[in-house]
Structures are given as C-alpha cells and as structure tokens.
Amino acid sequence: MNSNLTEILQQGLRIILGGATVLSETLQDQQKRTQTLDELQSQLKQTAEELSQRGEVAEREVRIKAEQWLGKSQSGNFSTVATTQATRGSATKEGVEELTVAIIALRQELENSRSSMI
C-alpha cells in the first residue's frame, strides 16, 4: 500500500513536470502557441455546438411536457379539488408562462455562451 502511494505521487510529479515542459515549449514557440490556441478554440466551438444541440432537445422535451400538462389540466384529468375551473385555468396559464420565461432565459444564456466562445 505504501509503495502504491509512492507510485501515485511519483506519477503525479511526472505529470506536473511534463505539463510544465509542454507549457514552456508552447510559450517559446510562436507556431506551436498559435496551433495550440487554434486547437483550443476548435474544441470550445465543438463543445458549444454539442451543448446547443442538447439544449434544443431539452427545449423540445420541456415544450412537449408543458403542452401535455396543459392538455391534461384543460381536459380535467386531474382529481377534483375545492377550486373553481377559472382558478385552475389561471394556475395552468401561469405555469406555462413561467416555463416559457425559463426557456427564453436558458436560450439567451446559451446564445451568450456561444458568442463569448467564438
């Protein structure tokens, strides 16, 4: 167990030294620095695209759930409580409006993230 810990620490030290070496070489070589920055930018762009696609899927799913929820509440599938139909309709409308506002905020945040990465 003690030799295991020593090996882990030794490997960690080597990783740090290797990273420092790569960083030093990158900073000293203009071409390598440009290449590294281009690769990072490309990876960020790809990640932003993947997150955007996932966001679109999530947005569709939320919209479908909201429409299903709205449809159920309007058709009266919920158990009856001591509330009037007008109160239920108002609560449903408020819920949908809240979901819409949340979706708009998420979309805006995603667009801001995308534009700051590019």
Which characteristics define this entry?
single chain; 118 residues; mainly alpha; 3 helices; 0% strand; elongated
Shape: elongated
Compute the number of structural domains: 2
Fraction of residues in β-strands = under 5%
Number of strands: 0
Treating each run of at least 4 consecutive H or I residues as one helix, how many helices? 3
- How much is the radius of gyration in Å? 26 Å
Quaternary organization: single chain
Distance, first to last CA = 47 Å
Order of SSEs, N→C?
Answer: HHH
Mean pLDDT: 79
Structural class: mainly alpha
Helix amount = over 70%
Name the poorly predicted regions: 76-88
Instruction: Describe the main β-sheet briefly.
Output: none
The gist of it:
The chain is built from 3 helices and no strands. It has 118 residues and is mostly helical.
Question: Could you explain the architecture of this structure?
Answer:
By secondary structure, the protein is mainly α. The chain has two domains: 1-30; 38-118. It has three helices and no strands. It has helices at 2-28, 30-75, 85-117. Helix 1 (2-28) packs across helix 2 (30-75) and helix 2 packs antiparallel against helix 3. The longest helix is centred in the middle third of the chain and has 46 residues, at 30-75. It starts with a helix and ends with a helix.
